[in-house]
Design goal:
The chain has 143 residues and is mainly α. It is built from five helices and no strands. The radius of gyration is 33 Å and the shape is rod-shaped. The termini are far apart. The mean pLDDT is 89.
Length: 143
């Protein structure tokens, strides 16, 4: 379910990125190429800053083109991180199973431990019963 919801969030993020592309296009503003100096500096800044406080001094000073390119960059980077996280969750799911499988494994593991403990106690009980019988015989014989 988590993987499914993350993919829905990714879809929404991609729609948001497309909206920023449309905004740039309809307002005749430039989408910075990925190799431009401005875009490279922006990507580097976004890569090492993940708190709004880092962006606050600049946001109010940015024009529409700069702000849209910033948001597109952040959308791309967030999408990349989400893809990596989803991939890790998928690998974890394949290795460990889903919540139902983990709950079943935990439940059966608990039951197996309880069964082993019960078996151990029954064996100990049988052993003690035999020891009691042996002691009773010795008492009866007067030893």
């Amino acid at each position: 379910m988590e993987i499914k919801l993350l993919n829905v969030a990714r879809g929404s993020l991609q729609e948001l990125r497309a909206d920023y592309h449309d905004y740039l296009h309809t307002h005749h503003l430039s989408l910075w190429s990925k190799d431009s100096g401005r875009q490279l500096r922006l990507r580097q800044f976004c890569h090492s800053h993940n708190d709004y406080i880092d962006y606050a001094p600049f946001v109010m000073k940015m024009n529409d083109e700069e702000l849209s390119n910033l948001m597109i960059t952040l959308c791309h980077q967030t999408d990349k991180m989400m893809c990596a996280y989803i991939e890790r969750l998928e690998q974890q799911f394949v290795k460990e199973g889903g919540i139902k499988e983990r709950m079943y494994a935990a439940r059966t593991g608990y039951r197996q431990k309880q069964d082993a403990r019960l078996q151990s106690l029954e064996e100990e009980n049988q052993k003690l019963k035999k020891e009691i019988e042996t002691l009773k015989k010795k008492i009866a014989e007067g030893i």
